[in-house]
Amino acid sequence: MTETSAQGRLAVDVGGTFTDVALEFGPKRFTAKVLTTPSMPERGVMEGIEKALEVANASPADIGLIIHGTTLATNALIERKGAKTALITTEGLRDSVEMAFENRFEQYDINIDRPDPLVPRNLRWSVRERLNFKGEVLIPLDEASVEALIPLIDSNEIGSVAIGLIHSYANGTHEERVSEILTKARPDLSITLSSAVCPEIREYERQSTASANAYVQPIMSRYLGILREDLKKRGFACPVLLMTSGGGLTTLDTAMKFPIRLVESGPAGGAILASEIARECDLASVVSYDMGGTTAKICLLDDFMPQTTRTFEVARVYRNMKGSGWPVRIPAIEMVEIGAGGGS
Q1: CB 324 within 8 A of CB 104
Q2: pTM higher than 0.85, yes or no?
Q3: Which of 78, 122, 146, 225 has a 20 to 30 A CA-CA distance from 66?
């Protein structure tokens, strides 16, 4: 690079409509905007990066860090464009994700609609095992019941499996063994353990989170894997970090394993920016509004900080009605998001 000597920071945000790139060299900032390429989002990312580098007269060697935010995981869930997924549960508990909380989130609607589970009943299978709430084994894992599922995986052309056994938050040994058996038989199968993605009590939320992670894992792993290779081929040798729904950063490897943590990745970045602007302007109580091409997001900031939550809902059947979507137990910045962007 000829104009600056400091290493630059490059940020990429892939939305439903546009892919935005911002490049920073000290006080100098450069931007680029291109259309998102939904079928192969890495193409839009690389096109945007090339434009930003060209405007800044920079090369990949000048970049010291890449930060990436995206709504691809959210879009895959909402549009039901994830992998064909199966859920493996403890014998007798395969309907937990459909029974949910057994309540009515809208008391006076006699035609109430509940969100259909990500995994239909015919793809929710059981294995014989049982742990108590302390993680102590009451019924040892019947490995034959696990092996019996392999023909079902093949005949149903399953691309990803979520494993959510009862009380696995206290002891993940049985889930790990189920994963070992399936991986040995089908090495290319994507597998999500509820004890890894959400090691918390309450079966419904844990199984729902594991199912959502399994549903988007193949598409997100493919995208992030190709992006990593494309960046490497282009000459980027710097770290690549992903923005999480909670406003933190994570590595590519972790994001590929737990893509559900990226559900509100892009909008979280907007809320973090709003908090920085609020602090600079000395405004403790702020409402941030972030409108993209596809969706619009609103977030409340108290004492310069966005509100946070541990329970997040995706694809609500009733707009903004709590309980009408799929619960996902991840740290997230709390915001309202509606399908009313500049283009939609």
Answers
A1: no
A2: yes
A3: 78
